[in-house]
Automatic annotation (TrEMBL), chains A, B:
Pfam family, one: Oxidored_molyb
Domain Moybdenum cofactor oxidoreductase dimerisation: residue ranges: 264-377
Name recorded for this polypeptide: Sulfite oxidase
Organism field: Arthrobacter horti
Lineage: Bacteria, Bacillati, Actinomycetota, Actinomycetes, Micrococcales
SUPFAM superfamilies, alphabetized: E set domains, Oxidoreductase molybdopterin-binding domain
Length: 382, 382
């Protein structure tokens, strides 16, 4: 294991065998209070997709969502190496050129942050305060992961792989390199790969340069950026990002269940023009073509409905960009003067449908509540 | 004039001859209250520079700050035209290829949002709630503007030029295309140009594709994105972004003074590693090389000082990247265990120095208060 545990703040607990509870997580519990300066600082650092850019099937560079837990590390691609070690028969080490020389795949992937929608929960969990735009779609190019792991060979007692990035910091009183784990079964089922290009160009620093893990269909925390090592381990990984963060739970004492695949969601391009401050939309009356995109990590998006003031009608679906990417949808709306509430909700092939009210959990994970857009329709100007 | 005025919200004033006062600006007055959902939505849309990226002299694509008042417009570069009209002797029209065929300059420019630092003011003006990171530096390529204006020829009664973008929305109850004006004197003094490339690549959509105005040394609101027209006008432009927003004033009834050149500022790369939620820094004791960048639109940066717990010492300055770009600085710090407050402040060639406390104004413009970074230094681990 390459991770280290250190207690750096007086008063925070030393690492113990019992799970770290929410009170030790550094941010305090969910609150009914106002937004805090710490949340604002996180909102300034991390980037969301401006909703109008949902019109683009592939998110333009620089507009894809970004959540960076610690700092963006400075990595020299020439000296960078990826090690594959632990409970394996042969330790391996790859340079960037080694990975580029292997068989390559390019996969369109919709990535979403598991905390997307968090700021809409009441009480509000204290972390990155996403509204609804922590998403993006890119074509990622890399080499499949499973063949590399087969080349290394697993010991019989290995249970999963730990993926560790070069970004390091403190969360909930623990100091760690950012790290997450996956079983070989999940790696194979999701078609995980080691990505070194995004939309045909080398990864930008903020997306994991030179190499990141890419796990299509799962929330973004799994696709570890700035990948430095892969380690086969003989007991389930208990790093902070695996065992404490990114779990669905209602109560701090629960272990909860792991966050993994992306829940079904749709978003619309807000129609018309915005008010700068409120982002309320102003639309001219008449026929308006509403459009958006929908995705799910659990299955195919089967339908999208548009709700206007509580009345739902089906949208037309476009083909998906790929098995793990969003699909476009559109629907016509006869916009009549007055104030209206637009909502959209998607249903996937498992029958899962977006809820109309947020489903609360302690850490604000997987809130796929149906989007709400407030619109003022104005009469034709004469 | 291509701008239109429309009152779209009941209760907001029709356009009148008297200046629009702050109460009509749509966001309400400054507040001592908590952060609002509207501010959070703006913070989610707009992007700041993660402070660790100050280590890069040229900001990597996708990490440069972004403030987008309305929506990012979708523009077809093939059919895009820039018109030069109004009080000119010859109306002109340029395609993107026309501009690319003209003499080209590439200029490294540090751009900063005039509202940078706004969220630190008390009471807090209600708008995009920047902390301190609304900055970035890129190499911008384009063609000088003044020769184009000379080719058009000015009528004797023309007083300035209005630059209008393709982004449209409502601010303070007024509906307008985003527009700003400049005099010919300012255009020539600042070396303004029409930029079609950023760091050697076509402009990304969010930075004004296909062409934006670039006014080195002035705050970013002047460098109009998605430029669609240039119009010579015979009386000073009174558009919202010129006459109401982007003015220094203390009282809603004042006209105030225009915001234009960038005030001197320095920022440091926060040392050590962060706590995810609080962004507090953890540093190992010993000698730490602190580094950052400093810039001013009023003159050359002449000195940078680092303050540790209130004691100031000079930093070493690197050459500036260019006459309108930041310069790097660094200083060694003997970090002793305990909690410390780091600050940096720059002085420019006009003698202007960053204040240690914010200087308040009604719209939160030009707050160049010295940055403050809280650090916990820990003893060597054994």
């Amino acid at each position: 294991m390459t991770t280290q545990w250190t207690t750096v703040f007086p008063g925070l607990p030393e690492r113990q065998d019992e799970p770290v509870t929410h009170a030790a997580r550094g941010s305090g519990g969910p609150t009914d209070g106002p937004l805090t300066d710490a949340e604002l600082q996180l909102a300034a650092r991390n980037h969301a997709l401006p909703l109008e850019i949902l019109r683009e099937e592939v998110t333009p560079p620089g507009l894809h969502y970004l959540l960076i837990h610690f700092d963006i590390p400075a990595i020299d691609a020439g000296s960078w190496r990826l090690s594959v070690a632990g409970a394996v028969q042969r330790e391996l080490s790859f340079s960037l050129e080694d990975l580029r020389a292997r068989p390559a795949v390019t996969v369109p992937v919709t990535l979403e942050c598991a905390g997307n929608g968090r700021s809409l929960l009441r009480p509000r969990p204290l972390s990155q305060p996403w509204v609804l735009e922590a998403v993006g779609t890119a074509g990622w190019t890399g080499t499949p992961l499973a063949p590399i792991l087969r080349e290394a060979g697993l010991h019989d007692d290995a249970v999963e792989f730990v993926f560790t990035g070069a970004d390091r910091g403190i969360q909930g009183g623990r100091e760690e390199d950012y790290a997450r784990s996956l079983t070989l079964e999940d790696i194979e089922r999701q078609g995980a790969f080691l990505a070194y290009a995004m939309n045909g160009a080398p990864l930008p620093p903020q997306h994991g340069f030179p190499v990141r893990l890419m796990v299509p269909g799962w929330y973004g925390m799994t696709s570890v950026k700035w990948l430095s090592s892969i380690e086969a381990v003989t007991r389930p990984f208990d790093g902070y990002q695996q065992a404490v963060a990114y779990r669905y739970l209602q109560d701090p004492q629960e272990q909860g269940t792991p966050v993994n695949r992306i829940r079904v969601r749709s978003l619309m391009v807000p129609p018309g023009i915005p008010d700068f401050f409120t982002r309320r939309r102003i639309v001219d009356s008449g026929t308006v073509r509403l459009q958006g995109r929908a995705w799910s990590g659990h299955g195919t998006v089967e339908s999208v409905e548009m709700g206007v003031d509580g009345t739902w009608s089906p949208a037309e679906l476009e083909p998906a960009l790929g098995g793990h990417a969003w699909r476009g949808w559109s629907v016509s709306w006869d916009a009549e003067p007055g104030d209206h509430e637009l909502r959209c909700r998607a249903t996937d092939s498992t029958g899962a449908v977006q809820p109309l009210e947020p489903e609360w959990n302690l850490q604000g994970m997987g809130n796929n509540v149906a989007q709400r857009v407030e619109v003022t329709v104005r009469a034709p100007r004469v």
